[in-house]
């Protein structure tokens, strides 16, 4: 096979490679996202393939081509191919196309080509065409390298290295053309032919991978955006639920606040009214000593004193409630002798109440680590509750014993009165319809026991009566009671048999 035929077949093969790769890139990458960039690249590669196939890689053109094709169409295709490939890369990177600069370069190249055609030396047009290819491939390679640096896609470097390899071979051929007119089949021609074939393969494959990487990266970003949106929506829903819970808590606190204010108003108004009436009757008796005996005067004064004691008890409960509700500091405990604390609490009772009270000790424990003021108030509330609601002839018993099975100390106040309704045993501070005095006193006792890590246990005795118990954990064993244990220890006591029991929830401090 002669050399001209081999050169023509090799040139046609390189042109066909460009044509096939252009069609493959367009078929694979066509879509709405990169349609314009893919169309520009495919059109530029297609034009470059036609130019290389017909132009013989800038060696003397075949004699059968018309002069218009040789001097006009092929140079125009060469410029258009290079410009379209540069515009495709700029479009892919999101940069402006700069059509004005491209048109200016085309005009400059056309003017240079027209001047080169005036020369009789065949090396001048060949050198100019070779120079245009050098500049064009170098610019394409630079844009591909910039895309790899901006997007981080390594496949964009394939395009850059393939184009720069072709640029390097074209530079070597420029020296060969300057020494002698270009001839097909010479070493420089074969060198450029091989670099053009590699550029057709790896350049287009690199562009194809570059766009696919960009699509994959965009898909990952969209997926991450959906994940972030889902997480943000979940966080917003959780925040909304937390806000809703806070609103519910706020409404509950507001309701409790209103209920407490109503309770306190009733607690203050009724004892003050009773104290005023008692004092008024006492004053009337004192103003008419001839009509009243000493016993009547003493009875009126004793009644006034009892009512004032109730007022003092109510005020103590109100102040204790306000203190407990606004307490921020930890509970300050100290070891207190039990007999001293009991005697101090009994000193708050009236003489008639002390006559109907029995105190029984069933333990050798003589001290307890508590806050004495709060414990005195809680125990006094239970005693006052027994005397107030047990009836005028009620008898009250205070039992102090230990619970060996649970390691606790119990102060039980039992009376032989009518007892409490079963529905009032579970939550003494908030039941509507229950007498306000009982609700406030038991509420304070419950809060005091919660602060001490103990329990307030309420129960009715059989056949009649009511028992309220303060159960404290001993310092040697830090434990709490649940409802089942509370009911068991109530039924295990030494007092009368109990029908029903209720306990507040304990918490450790």
The assigned structural class equals alpha+beta
Please count the beta strands (DSSP E, at least 2 residues each).
8
Mean pLDDT: 75
Percent strand equals: 5-15%
Helix content: 55-70%
The CATH class of the largest domain is identified as: Mainly Alpha
Overall tally of structural domains: 2
Distance between the termini: 104 Å
Would you identify the CATH architecture of the largest domain? Up-down Bundle
The CATH topology of the largest domain turns out to be Rhopdopsin 7-helix transmembrane proteins
Numbering strands along the chain, what is their spatial order in the largest sheet?
Answer: 2-4-5-7-6-8
Query: What is the string of helix and strand elements?
Result: HHHHHHHHEHHEEHEEHEEHE
Query: Using only CA atoms, what is the Rg?
Result: 52 Å
- Give the overall silhouette: rod-shaped
Detail the poorly predicted runs. Answer: 428-438, 477-483, 492-509
Instruction: Report the biggest beta sheet as strand number plus sense, adding barrel if it closes.
Output: 6 strands, mixed
How many helices in DSSP terms? 13
């Amino acid at each position: 096979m002669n050399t001209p035929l081999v050169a023509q077949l090799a040139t046609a093969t390189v042109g066909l490679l460009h044509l096939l790769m252009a069609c493959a890139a367009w078929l694979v990458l066509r879509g709405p996202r990169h349609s314009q960039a893919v169309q520009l690249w495919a059109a530029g590669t297609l034009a470059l393939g036609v130019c290389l196939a017909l132009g013989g890689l800038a060696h003397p053109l075949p004699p059968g081509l018309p002069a218009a094709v040789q001097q006009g169409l092929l140079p125009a295709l060469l410029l258009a191919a290079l410009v379209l490939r540069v515009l495709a890369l700029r479009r892919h990177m999101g940069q402006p196309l700069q059509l004005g600069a491209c048109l200016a370069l085309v005009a400059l190249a056309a003017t240079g080509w027209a001047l080169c055609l005036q020369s009789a030396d065949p090396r001048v047009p060949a050198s100019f065409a070779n120079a245009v290819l050098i500049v064009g491939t170098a610019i394409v390679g630079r844009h591909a390298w910039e895309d790899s640096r901006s997007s981080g896609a390594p496949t964009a470097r394939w395009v850059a290295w393939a184009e720069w390899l072709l640029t390097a071979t074209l530079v070597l051929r420029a020296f060969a053309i300057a020494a002698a007119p270009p001839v097909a089949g010479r070493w420089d021609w074969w060198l450029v032919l091989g670099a053009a074939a590699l550029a057709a393969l790896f350049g287009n494959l690199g562009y194809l991978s570059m766009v696919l990487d960009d699509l994959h990266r965009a898909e990952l970003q969209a997926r991450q955006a959906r994940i972030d949106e889902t997480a943000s929506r979940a966080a917003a829903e959780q925040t909304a639920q937390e806000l809703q819970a806070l609103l519910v808590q706020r409404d509950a606190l507001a309701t409790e606040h209103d209920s407490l204010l109503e309770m306190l108003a009733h607690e203050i108004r009724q004892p003050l009214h009773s104290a005023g009436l008692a004092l008024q009757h006492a004053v009337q008796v004192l103003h008419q000593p001839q009509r009243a005996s000493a016993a009547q005067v003493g009875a009126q004064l004793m009644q006034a004193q009892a009512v004032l004691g109730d007022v003092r008890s109510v005020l103590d409960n109100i102040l204790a409630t306000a203190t407990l509700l606004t307490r921020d500091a930890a509970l300050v405990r100290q070891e207190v002798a039990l007999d001293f604390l009991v005697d101090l609490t009994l000193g708050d009772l009236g003489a008639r109440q002390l006559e109907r009270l029995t105190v029984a000790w069933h333990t050798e424990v003589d001290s307890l680590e508590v806050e004495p003021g709060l414990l005195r108030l809680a125990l006094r509330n239970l005693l006052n509750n027994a005397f107030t609601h047990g009836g005028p002839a009620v008898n009250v018993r205070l039992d102090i014993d230990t619970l060996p099975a649970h390691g606790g100390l119990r102060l039980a106040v039992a009376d032989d009165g009518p007892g409490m309704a079963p529905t009032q045993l579970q939550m003494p501070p908030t039941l509507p319809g229950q007498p306000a005095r009982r609700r406030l006193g038991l509420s304070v006792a419950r809060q005091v026991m919660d602060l001490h890590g103990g329990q307030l246990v309420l129960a009715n005795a059989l056949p009649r009566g009511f028992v309220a118990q303060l159960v404290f954990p001993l310092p040697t064993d830090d434990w709490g009671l649940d409802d089942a244990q509370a009911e068991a220890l109530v039924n295990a006591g030494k007092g009368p048999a109990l029908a029903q029991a209720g306990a507040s929830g304990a918490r450790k401090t």
